[in-house]
């Protein structure tokens, strides 16, 4: 697991009251606050803007608020807003904080340090909703800085405080309409982040579903996101929990997959037709709409990756020759490719590259990257292996900017891992096919693409001559049959792994002989070769995300765009 660096540890260790960094001037602060509300709070409505601005104006008056929760909340908003502003206009975050000393680090870490200076009070003695908001804001900064472990602990503290305050229950008779809406939004933002951070680490969430009474948001993109995350939570409970993984519950898991797939499909078609629905052209003339729309699409494909995970239910009898297992593999890979296409659209827009949005959602393309990487090692002879290698290079190229310019000390390490895995996949294909060429005929010249950060163009054709236009968004997921019914075999071809050596064992064996090291050291999670690392924040500016994306053909009512092609 990627651990704490000395720089990150200094953010919260040995804090004293005089260690708090003074707040920036009001003119600098208002920039960060405005960016936060325009491009982050619009996706995850953590604060009521009117109430927040009332306190913000009081902060720069002769009688500033003295609440510890407000102090931490303000610093969290300033930190997140500064990250967005820095990425979009290229202004270093220290410019927003002219009184910052060199020893204190960057502005974002200074804001986080200020939050940590009151963490004990927030966790042990705070009894107000703003304390929950402050802890959530801390978790969002930590997620941005790729420190998911620390974010997991912060969101856990926020969840326990929220449950203590009864945010999970309705309070319509006790609160005003504005307070009811704010409490509801805070709880569901907490729910979304709690599920996201927990599932990425392969751990159960803090808030149990059985104790949720408060109603969901009524409408809007956030309401769609909440409903999708609740489906994802059910996927975890019924397929990934310790109880669900009992070998005696295999038939229950198979039935759950079919039911959960139908729920996911119903959610997709509950969205209005157009750019909001996953699988459609994504074009957002209004930059403020981009983060929320992009998040919905990425989370939808992530649910598919979780639902069609290769090894779920494969402990005993599943194999590559099993039609159900084969169709799940195809669906998982389709979701992974769609995720990378979604990321690639940021570059194809032709405008200012949105490091912040890519960093915020980096978990999704990195998870897809690992799925495609494993498939290349399992099936180097598959015709899709060349194109999948090209998609790995797209992830490497597109994420190099967000990772190499990140304020996180962990980002460079993550970039080096992606770079190493991309080169490993390329070398594996070249070595495999070169060996076959030596056995069957004259040597063939396999050119190895130069895998180097920014210099790899994601808009060029495949390094192996595979046309990129052949890959369209919204690929199919299988309409799986009942567990024991007849079903047509959807195989990878003649070169599938044998039953004697299970697929993930084959991958682990290859990695053990490479110079990467033990895979479970780099990617701990649900199983030995699959885990994910992530980041958070959002993007700005007007994108044009339609180039290279295709609308699916018109389909009759009741026909699923995720079903196998006829």
From TrEMBL:
Keywords: DNA-binding, Nucleus, Transcription, Transcription regulation
Biased segments, Polar residues type: 528-544
Domain annotation Xylanolytic transcriptional activator regulatory: ranges: 151-223
Principal subcellular localization: nucleus
A cellular component annotation (GO) from this entry: nucleus
Species the sequence originates in: Aspergillus udagawae
GO biological process: DNA-templated transcription
GO terms of molecular function: DNA binding; DNA-binding transcription factor activity; zinc ion binding
UniProt key word Transmembrane: no
InterPro entries for the chain: AtrR-like (IPR050987), XnlR_reg_dom (IPR007219)
UniProt region (Disordered), positions on chain: 522-566
Annotated Pfam families: Fungal_trans
Localization: Nucleus
Protein name as it appears in the record: 3-(3-hydroxy-phenyl)propionate/3-hydroxycinnamic acid hydroxylase
Keyword 4Fe-4S set for record: no
Domain of life, source organism: Eukaryota
């Amino acid at each position: 697991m990627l651990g704490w660096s000395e720089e990150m540890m200094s953010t919260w260790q040995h804090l004293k009251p005089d260690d708090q960094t003074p707040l920036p001037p009001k003119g600098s602060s208002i920039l960060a606050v405005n960016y936060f509300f325009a491009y982050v709070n619009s996706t995850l409505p953590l604060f009521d803007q009117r109430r927040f601005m009332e306190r913000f104006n009081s902060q720069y008056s002769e009688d500033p608020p003295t609440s510890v929760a407000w102090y931490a909340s303000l610093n969290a908003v300033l930190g997140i807003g500064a990250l967005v502003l820095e990425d979009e206009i290229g202004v270093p975050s220290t410019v927003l904080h002219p009184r910052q000393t060199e020893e204190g680090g960057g502005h974002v870490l200074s804001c986080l340090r200020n939050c940590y200076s009151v963490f004990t009070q927030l966790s042990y003695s705070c009894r107000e909703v703003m304390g929950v908001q402050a802890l959530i804001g801390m978790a969002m900064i930590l997620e941005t800085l790729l420190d998911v472990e620390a974010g997991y602990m912060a969101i856990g503290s926020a969840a326990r405080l929220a449950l203590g305050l009864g945010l999970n229950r309705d309070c319509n008779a006790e609160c005003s309409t504005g307070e009811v809406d704010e409490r509801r939004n805070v709880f569901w933002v907490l729910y979304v982040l709690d599920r996201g951070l927990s599932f990425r680490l392969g751990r159960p969430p803090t808030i149990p579903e059985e104790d949720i009474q408060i109603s969901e948001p009524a409408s809007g993109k956030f309401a769609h996101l909440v409903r999708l995350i609740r489906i994802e939570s059910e996927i975890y409970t019924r397929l990934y929990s310790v109880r669900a993984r009992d070998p005696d519950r295999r038939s229950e898991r198979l039935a759950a997959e079919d039911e959960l797939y139908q729920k996911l499909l119903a959610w997709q078609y509950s969205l209005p037709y157009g750019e909001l629905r996953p699988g459609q052209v994504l074009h957002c003339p209004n930059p403020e709409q981009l983060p929320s729309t992009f998040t919905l699409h990425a989370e939808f494909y992530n649910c598919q990756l979780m639902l069609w995970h290769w090894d779920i239910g494969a402990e005993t009898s599943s194999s590559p020759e099993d039609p159900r297992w084969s169709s799940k593999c195809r669906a998982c890979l389709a979701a992974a490719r769609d995720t990378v296409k979604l990321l690639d659209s940021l570059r194809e827009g032709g405008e200012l590259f949105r490091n912040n949005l890519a960093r915020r959602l980096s978990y999704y393309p990195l998870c897809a990257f690992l799925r495609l990487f494993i498939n290349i090692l399992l099936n180097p002879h598959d015709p899709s292996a060349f194109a999948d290698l090209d998609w790995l290079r797209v992830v490497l190229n597109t994420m190099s900017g967000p990772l190499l310019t990140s304020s996180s000390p962990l980002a460079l390490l993550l970039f080096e891992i992606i770079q190493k895995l991309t080169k490993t996949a390329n070398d594996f294909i070249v070595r495999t096919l070169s060996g076959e060429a030596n056995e069957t005929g004259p040597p063939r010249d396999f050119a190895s693409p130069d895998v180097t950060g920014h210099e790899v163009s994601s808009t060029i054709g495949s390094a192996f001559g595979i046309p990129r236009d052949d890959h369209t968004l919204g690929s199919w997921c299988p309409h799986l049959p009942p567990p024991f019914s007849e079903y047509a075999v959807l195989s990878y071809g003649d070169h599938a792994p044998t039953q004697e050596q299970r697929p993930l064992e084959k991958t682990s064996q290859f990695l053990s002989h490479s110079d990467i090291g033990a895979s479970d050291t780099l990617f701990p999670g649900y199983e030995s070769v699959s885990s994910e690392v992530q980041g958070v924040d959002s993007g700005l500016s007007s994108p044009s995300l339609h180039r290279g994306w295709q609308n699916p053909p018109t389909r009759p009512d009741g026909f699923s765009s995720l079903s196998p092609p006829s």
